[in-house]
Specification:
Blueprint lengths: L2 E4 L5 H12 L3 E6 L14 E5 L5 H15 L4 E4 L14 H29 L2 E6 L12 H21 L4 E7 L21 H19 L4 H13 L6 E3 L2 H12 L2 H11 L1
Parallel strand pairs: 1-2, 1-4, 2-3, 4-5, 5-6, 6-7
Helix pairs in contact: 1-6, 2-3, 3-4
The structure holds NADP nicotinamide-adenine-dinucleotide phosphate.
Amino acid sequence: MKTIVITGASSGIGKSTAELFSKKGWNVAATMRNLEKAAQFKNFSNIRCYPMDVCDIKSVENCIHQVISDFGKIDVLLNNAGVYETSPFEKTTMESVDQLINTNIYGIIHSTKILIPHFRENKSGMIVNISSIAGRATFPFQSVYHLTKWAVEAFSESLRYELENMNIRIKTFSPSSVKTNLWSKLNKHVGDMYPKEYRDNFTNWFSYLQRNIQKGVLPEHEALAIYKAVCDKKNILRYSSDFNTKLATFLHNILPVNMFQRFIRYQI
Ligand SMILES: NC(=O)c1ccc[n+]([C@@H]2O[C@H](COP(=O)([O-])OP(=O)(O)OC[C@H]3O[C@@H](n4cnc5c(N)ncnc54)[C@H](OP(=O)(O)O)[C@@H]3O)[C@@H](O)[C@H]2O)c1
């Protein structure tokens, strides 16, 4: 029986992916900051919950070592935990910048660093990093989120050179727009909060974002796409279930930046 460790499994994509892997017969180590949320998995006998705050390397280390001691071996690490923020950069608080960087970048660095020796000794393993359309293209008013997801993409691409000859595979997965708690703290009255120079553009962006979230898919949809990416034997780095992600990535790759940004402004 294979074992997967999932970070941020308390809700959204992480929770649905934990449930799906469990139904497919995997051992699932569902890690979360708050173990009270473990109760939601009580009907899944092969999901075991562990405390882990991805921002705290000691907590990550304790958790990973406990999972190895419980299951003997880890086959896949799904780095899923993440946070989101949208605001003009000028008005983004340093607290929010720290939270984005600590969770979305350091979170992945901590778990990867701690698991690589185990994978190297086993001469096998897979790390799937949850990225985003925001890691392959750009939109306004989420510059720090972009910073973190572009970092995830570059980190994953570079690591792949190093780990390929040890049979450790690296993949990134960019979800569609998914209806999850990620969006729950978005302020609904943002228009008035910012200096007048930002207001119209931010209001347009914010309603574009909300329209996309409303059209979003359920996390179960992404769980299936992640399962397929994990089981896929092909040597592919980047996976996405989303047409818009593929289109934006393609356009970002081929268009001069002025033209790409004109296209995005037109969409918004
Ligand atoms: N939803 C989308 O449309 C979308 C699109 C592209 C990419 N993504 C990416 O998908 C991933 C999952 O997000 P989601 O949409 O499923 O949102 P979500 O429901 O809010 O899930 C995020 C998870 O991350 C956890 N988390 C946050 N900070 C953490 C920390 N310091 N330590 C451990 N866990 C932490 C949360 O735990 P708590 O319950 O403790 O807060 C939660 O379980 C993220 O990386 C996100 O960037 C989502």
